Amino acid sequence: MCGIAGRLNWNAPIDPAQLAAMIGQLHHRGPDQQGFYNKGPIGLAHARLSIIDLSGGDQPMCNEDGTVWVVFNGEIFNYIELRAELQRRGHRFATQSDTEVLVHLYEDHGDALVDQLNGQFAFALWDVPRQRLLLARDRTGIRPLFHTRVPGGLAFASEVKALFALPEVPRRLDAKALGEVFTYWAPLPPHAVFEGIESLPPGHMMSVDARGTQTRRYWDWSFPPASIEDERSAAACADELRDLLIDAVRLQLRADVPVAAYLSGGLDSSIVTTLICHYTDTPLRTFSLTFDDAEFDESPWQQQLVRHLGTDHTTVHCTRADIAAAFPRTIAHTETPIVRTAPAPMMLLAAGVRAAGYKVALTGEGADEVFGGYDLFKEARVRRFMARQPASRWRPRLLERLYPYLKHSPAAGRAMTERFFREGEAHFREPWFAHLPRWTTTRRITGFLSPEWRAAATAADPIATLAAQLPADISRWEPLCQDQYIEAHTLMSGYLLCSQGDRMAMAQSIETRFPFLDHRLIAFASQLPPRYKLMGLVEKYLLKRSMDGLLPDALRHRTKQPYRAPDSQSFFHNGEPVDYVADLFSVARLKEAGYFDPEAAIRLFDKARAGKVIGFGDNMAFVGMLSTLLLHDQFIRR
């Protein structure tokens, strides 16, 4: 894992001091080494976290004759197989690094090199003879890549803060992107939350030369039409799935440093750790988060699997005070407002992994999107069932089976259930129907914006913006497949893999890996009959079946409980706010920032101080406002 940055300027040589300033902002992503290539119109910079070929993998890296240069952030897990094939075709390698396969693949395949890669990556490749820059990002958006127009050309980097090292890059929040954060929890690509800065979307590549810029998608999730029958047996599919999982885990254990694993106590991380123990020789060190609040703590489940596997285990305990103390740094690394505090404990977990001497950790993230694990999918199935007979009195009773782990469940009271789950009922045939209740709840945050910012943030219909990005044939897919696609392209790529994933791990110089997001697994799961993912209201049916005999039944059949952390209550102790929170919510600071209506913001602040913010909507509004104010303070005000 690394940080990359660079600048293309057709009008003047690249200032080495600017390159150094850009990559200096990414030291946390690559504390082991820095490298530069600066010639003609291009400057490339790299900050390295050494994981493969510790002594010989320094970057930027080139091919044999220096006509192709690359800076690379991530891992190519199938690099050993690719290297062997390239050597058979006559290519000579100077290192043992996975990075070097990129320049040789480009020599043979051009832009189609990405089709050969099994990995998580963002890279910039400079073709010297063609004077052409190629930027590419992995299929699901695990690794970030931002770019912006600058005088004479383009600048790019793994994080926005490196772009802000250039004095000509303005620092202003983008109102439309803010409205998307306050709907989808993250901006829709290519938007970033700052004006003039864009994110290269997952599964895309962008080429830049003297003639201009071209961006194209090279990969996407795809599902079969609903009319196609699939008669494969569950037993045969479960066997094939287990083999794919074993191989994905095996590939992602490749490293020249020790590899650890996150263990949440849920099914997905339990599967990853179990497969490591049963099918590899890797000594396994596991790490878990624990909380004071029983509502969020999963330590009994974690300990059950630790005892079952006998792993060398470490727990990182996180209190509300820890979350409050870590939150400003959390926002400095997310570089975007967030509506939940959950990323902060993940950063503290990564700190525990780093303190134990590890640089790499495998996680179970992605399984819910790939195999239909979220409550949202079950909820949507019930809501569609209700919408077909709106007058039915018994159909809504099925909602009572959802969210058993929530202290304040939206299905707890009949009146609340009817209001919440009938949201958008008339649109039950639309691809985004499943997500409307969550989006509507989150979008309440825009009501706290000042009149000017609210008008700008809500000027465009976010659902229309999303709809324009959906595949032309999505209406032909099964409803569950539609739900999965939208979840993967909004919450997963924009928030879970970014704010809660890459950014929190890299804040502590930790590389996280995601076996469930191996593109072969995604392709396999996408072709499964929906009943093998959501069997009635049993989530991840086939995934659970594939682990028969490997996982304890109690863990294998445990109901999904998503990872969560205390939100607004983390920032108050006995009714007194943390100092920086009180300062940011003062009338003077609210007026200075200008984003929120001071009276509305202070009313919610007082409600939180009194301990009366308990619902999702108010909690998301408080955290969303606080994170926006911190972002302004750290990136704009200073």
From TrEMBL:
<comment type="pathway">
    <text>Amino-acid biosynthesis; L-asparagine biosynthesis; L-asparagine from L-aspartate (L-Gln route): step 1/1.</text>
</comment>
<dbReference type="InterPro" id="IPR029055">
    <property type="entry name" value="Ntn_hydrolases_N"/>
</dbReference>
<feature type="active site" description="For GATase activity">
    <location>
        <position position="2"/>
    </location>
</feature>
<dbReference type="InterPro" id="IPR051786">
    <property type="entry name" value="ASN_synthetase/amidase"/>
</dbReference>
<keyword id="KW-0061">Asparagine biosynthesis</keyword>
<dbReference type="InterPro" id="IPR033738">
    <property type="entry name" value="AsnB_N"/>
</dbReference>
<feature type="domain" description="Glutamine amidotransferase type-2">
    <location>
        <begin position="2"/>
        <end position="211"/>
    </location>
</feature>
<keyword id="KW-0067">ATP-binding</keyword>
<keyword id="KW-0315">Glutamine amidotransferase</keyword>
<dbReference type="InterPro" id="IPR001962">
    <property type="entry name" value="Asn_synthase"/>
</dbReference>
<feature type="site" description="Important for beta-aspartyl-AMP intermediate formation">
    <location>
        <position position="365"/>
    </location>
</feature>
<feature type="binding site">
    <location>
        <position position="98"/>
    </location>
    <ligand>
        <name>L-glutamine</name>
    </ligand>
</feature>
<protein>
    <recommendedName>
        <fullName>asparagine synthase (glutamine-hydrolyzing)</fullName>
        <ecNumber>6.3.5.4</ecNumber>
    </recommendedName>
</protein>
<dbReference type="GO" id="GO:0005524">
    <property type="term" value="F:ATP binding"/>
</dbReference>
<dbReference type="InterPro" id="IPR014729">
    <property type="entry name" value="Rossmann-like_a/b/a_fold"/>
</dbReference>
<dbReference type="InterPro" id="IPR017932">
    <property type="entry name" value="GATase_2_dom"/>
</dbReference>
<keyword id="KW-0436">Ligase</keyword>
<dbReference type="Pfam" id="PF13537">
    <property type="entry name" value="GATase_7"/>
</dbReference>
<keyword id="KW-0547">Nucleotide-binding</keyword>
<dbReference type="GO" id="GO:0004066">
    <property type="term" value="F:asparagine synthase (glutamine-hydrolyzing) activity"/>
</dbReference>
<keyword id="KW-0028">Amino-acid biosynthesis</keyword>
<dbReference type="GO" id="GO:0006529">
    <property type="term" value="P:asparagine biosynthetic process"/>
</dbReference>
<dbReference type="GO" id="GO:0005829">
    <property type="term" value="C:cytosol"/>
</dbReference>
<dbReference type="InterPro" id="IPR006426">
    <property type="entry name" value="Asn_synth_AEB"/>
</dbReference>
<dbReference type="Pfam" id="PF00733">
    <property type="entry name" value="Asn_synthase"/>
</dbReference>
<comment type="similarity">
    <text>Belongs to the asparagine synthetase family.</text>
</comment>
